[in-house]
Design brief:
This protein has about 280 residues and is mainly alpha-helical. Helices cover about 65% and strands about 0% of the residues. The chain has helices at about 50-70, 70-80, 90-120, 125, 140-155, 165-170, 175-210, 210-230, 235-255, 260-280, and strands at about 1-5, 10. A two-stranded antiparallel sheet has the order 1-2. The radius of gyration is 24 Å and the shape is globular.
Length: about 280
Amino acid sequence: MKTCPRCHKELAESAIRCRYCRKPLSVNKPRPINLKGINLEPGYPPWALKEVLLLWLLVFAANFALEYFEITSILMDFLKGRYFILIKEPALQLHLYTFIGTFILKLLAVAAVWMMLRLHKTGFVSGLKLDTPLKREWLWVFPVFFIFSVVSRLFADTDPLSPNLPVYLFFKESSVLGALFTLFSLSIVAPVSEEIFFRGFIYPAINKKLGLYWSVLITALMFTAVHAPQCRDYPYILFIIFLGGVILTLARAFTKSTTLAILLHAMYNITITLIGYIKFLILKY
């Protein structure tokens, strides 16, 4: 026999609900998560915060140099003179000019992360939480993030300067190869490389040292800062990047899955790209 914790009537041992007060016998409630200063992954990762900061500074400086010292123009001249005859096409040049520098930088950043994990004798996939299996209970995140993607794109379009963004100019161009290169860069290269670097490598080191609140905030700020040289004249875009960085970092924190963050990031980029094509090529906005 056991006793109901509410009305204190005696019940059968197998009862799960009180026959008198009709209340469930279990009174255990899920403990609320105390987010303040909590470290959701104690002892992880093996790399230190100073290593993360050093690598981020190098990436930020390289990205700054790409924007302000015409390194992209040098790369384009090199490619045009030696390899790709197709990039003499003006429409394709626009796509390549915008992405080729950051494309190479992102690949180098991922290579640097791989070398850092090798130094710490940590597996690349397991160390960056790329092997965490996706769970069915996480599926609700995708429609929510899709709505965020659509709303953020509409919000960005309220900025009177947004049509001047280089990526928006692609939608007015007719280069098929350029469009494919842009879609490849936005839907695969950017999500994979950026999530590996920020949510896989940077976030856990800050979380280990400072806890969840500060790790989410600082990771999102660092994510935004890397995009700032290209979007410095577009505060609406920077705000969306920061907000998206917060959401992606929270998704990484509570699921312990960098793969989920990659998929969400890819869905965001694909969504805003498709909206752009519909707006500029179909609706002729």
